[in-house]
């Protein structure tokens, strides 16, 4: 059987793909067609699904449109393409990567969006293997050394609960509360004995949840800087259920978060048993990382794997129209987009597809027109998402200008510390983490300003922000004089806020998917804000497309 034919019907059976997706033979099959393993795989798949082979092998390759070239869209496109589908990825900008963007100038390398990621999710590790990016992975030096500003000074965050109890980071009262939490929140397993456990309908805030368990000081000096550093949000505006669903579940299951965390870690370990490869375990435990050249190395590699023929840059999707096609899924979706390249200024073009994965932010989706069977499909049920603005100030100083340099990841600033003149969210010690990001005689820093605590400041002028950042650097690191390099990057919609009414957003996305056959939504508006979660979301949408095409091929559209 030819490779083309094999790929053509691979899409119909996503479940066959699962054991093969990783590092593995399947990947080398796609990229190295001469591999002898491919013959074995062909035989294996043929033996498993002979009826599907005969029903679909004559049909043309399935065509899927992916809207948005951020990491979620690229991940979805990569997965679909590796299953033999024909993918077209539309991106408004002249580049892919979305909120992942690396830059270089004067011997400095910095990130203007995500700075690091983790591979907590197994799919992320497999993707890195698949893309051959292991050699380019960069782990920060002293990544466990992270600081929080307290009384105007950076203090090392204790790296585990025992170190926290031994340190002076919290007051004796707060430490006592942490020690007592497992007893105060003990869950007997009987439903009516859980009156202290938050009710699902209460839409509790992150701050309220952690204050119940650990008290106010923990919220002010650990939770607040953590949530603003990872989502630009604040503990009061963020919904616990949406921002930390795993912890929300721990409370519901165990009562105590500490007990729940310990028990689920043990059960996770025993479930994995001896099957986990020691190397894989080590990789996942190494925490945050980036890549040589910055985070964009990941999205550039995904983009290269996709190939330029499948990529429509400078192509803003304007409208999407769904029409049944005699019960078949073929070409049911018509996508109109404005091509804005140098050769085709503003021209409108249409293309048809069997399914669509949308990864553009909801605010962009709301600008698009949808038609269903030639009638407008109005998105008035889609609520307005709140977005948090953020400015990044990238600075470098000569080493001798920094009187108290700190090794480690960076320093986070709790909101409370604004009273001590610290107005930033935090600063990453970019060249301490990755020494190749700055010339030998300089230190490179990335400082974040704005978020929900300081929305107006996020949009301030470069001069105003420079003053704030330099003053913070003076207080926290003993910086003297002015930076030798400064770059200002502004994101008006850096993060969607997973607020108390975020349920409405998620339900509306589900409603779109339910009412528009072959339409799936992925990206950081669903399931988590991190790069890893966005990748997983893209993969999930790709799986749903595969199942949709499979089921509709057998049953027609309902
Ligand atoms: C400043 C900052 C720092 C961050 N730091 C971290 C970090 O350290 N670690 C971490 O894990 N995460 C971090 N994140 C979060 C993470 O980067 C994002 O959540 C993730 O990259 C989002 O990917 P996405 O594909 O869902 O969306 P996006 O990256 O937003 O991609 C969506 C794409 O859709 C395109 N688009 C929109 N409308 C249309 C249209 N009509 N037609 C075609 N294309 C369209 C956009 O141009 C964009 O490229 C950070 C985010 C920001 C902003």
TrEMBL record:
Keyword set, alphabetical order: FAD, Flavoprotein, Heme biosynthesis, Mitochondrion, Oxidoreductase, Porphyrin biosynthesis
Pathway stated in the Swiss-Prot or TrEMBL entry: Porphyrin-containing compound metabolism; protoporphyrin-IX biosynthesis; protoporphyrin-IX from protoporphyrinogen-IX: step 1/1
Domain annotation Amine oxidase: ranges: 71-546
EC nos: 1.3.3.4
GO molecular function, one term: oxygen-dependent protoporphyrinogen oxidase activity
Enzyme class: oxidoreductase
Major location (coarse): mitochondrion
Gene3D superfamilies (alphabetical): FAD/NAD(P)-binding domain, protoporphyrinogen ix oxidase, domain 3, Protoporphyrinogen oxidase, mitochondrial, domain 2
A cellular component term, taken from the record's GO annotations: chloroplast thylakoid
Catalytic activity: protoporphyrinogen IX + 3 O2 = protoporphyrin IX + 3 H2O2
Primary role: Catalyzes the 6-electron oxidation of protoporphyrinogen-IX to form protoporphyrin-IX.
Sequence similarity: Belongs to the protoporphyrinogen/coproporphyrinogen oxidase family. Protoporphyrinogen oxidase subfamily.
UniProt name for this protein: Protoporphyrinogen oxidase
């Amino acid at each position: 059987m030819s490779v083309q034919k094999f790929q053509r019907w691979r899409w119909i059976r996503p479940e066959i793909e699962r054991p093969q997706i990783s590092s593995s033979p399947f990947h080398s099959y796609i990229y190295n067609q001469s591999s002898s393993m491919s013959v074995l795989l062909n035989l294996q798949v043929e033996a498993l699904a002979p009826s599907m082979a005969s029903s679909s092998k004559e049909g043309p390759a399935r065509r899927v449109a992916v809207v948005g070239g951020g990491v979620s869209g690229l991940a979805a496109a990569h997965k679909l393409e590796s299953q033999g589908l024909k993918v077209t990825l539309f991106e408004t900008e002249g580049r892919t990567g979305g909120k992942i963007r690396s830059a270089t100038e004067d011997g400095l390398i910095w990130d203007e969006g995500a700075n690091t990621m983790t591979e907590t999710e197994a799919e992320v590790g497999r993707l890195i293997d698949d893309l051959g990016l292991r050699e380019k992975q960069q782990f920060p030096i002293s990544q466990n050394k992270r600081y929080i500003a307290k009384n105007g000074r950076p203090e090392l965050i204790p790296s585990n609960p025992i170190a926290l109890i031994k340190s002076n980071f919290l007051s004796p009262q707060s430490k006592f509360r942490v020690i007592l939490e497992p007893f105060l929140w003990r869950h007997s397993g009987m439903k009516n004995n859980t009156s202290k456990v938050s009710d699902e309908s209460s839409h509790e805030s992150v701050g309220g949840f952690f204050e119940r368990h650990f008290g106010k000081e923990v919220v002010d000096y650990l939770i607040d800087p953590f949530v603003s550093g990872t989502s630009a949000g604040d503990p009061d505006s963020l919904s616990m259920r949406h921002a930390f669903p795993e912890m929300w579940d721990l409370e519901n299951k165990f009562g105590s978060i500490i007990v729940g965390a310990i028990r689920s870690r043990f059960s996770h370990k025993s479930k994995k048993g001896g099957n986990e490869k020691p190397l894989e375990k080590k990789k996942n435990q190494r925490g945050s990382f980036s890549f040589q050249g910055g985070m964009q190395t990941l999205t550039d590699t995904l983009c290269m794997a996709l190939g330029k023929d499948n990529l429509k840059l400078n192509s803003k999707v304007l409208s999407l129209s769904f029409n049944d096609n005699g019960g078949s899924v073929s070409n049911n979706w018509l996508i109109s987009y404005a091509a804005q390249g140098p050769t085709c200024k503003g021209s409108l073009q249409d293309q048809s597809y069997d399914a669509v994965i949308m990864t553009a932010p909801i605010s962009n989706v709301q600008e698009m027109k949808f038609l269903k069977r030639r009638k407008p499909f109005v998105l008035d049920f889609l609520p307005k998402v709140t977005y948090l603005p953020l400015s990044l100030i990238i600075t470098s100083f000569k080493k001798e200008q920094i009187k108290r340099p700190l090794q480690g990841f960076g320093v986070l600033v709790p909101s409370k510390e604004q009273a001590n003149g610290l107005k930033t969210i935090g600063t990453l010690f970019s060249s301490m983490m990755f020494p190749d990001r700055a010339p030998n005689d300089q230190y490179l820093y990335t400082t974040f300003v704005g978020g929900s605590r300081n929305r107006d400041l996020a949009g301030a002028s470069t001069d105003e922000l420079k003053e704030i950042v330099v003053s913070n650097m003076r207080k926290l690191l003993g910086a003297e004089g002015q930076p030798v390099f400064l770059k200002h990057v502004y994101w008006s919609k850096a993060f969607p806020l997973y607020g108390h009414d975020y349920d409405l957003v998620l339900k509306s996305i589900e409603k779109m998917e339910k009412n528009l056959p072959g339409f799936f939504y992925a990206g950081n508006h669903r399931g988590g804000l991190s790069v890893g979660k966005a990748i997983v979301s893209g993969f999930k949408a790709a799986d749903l497309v595969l199942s949709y095409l499979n089921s509709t091929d057998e049953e027609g559209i309902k």
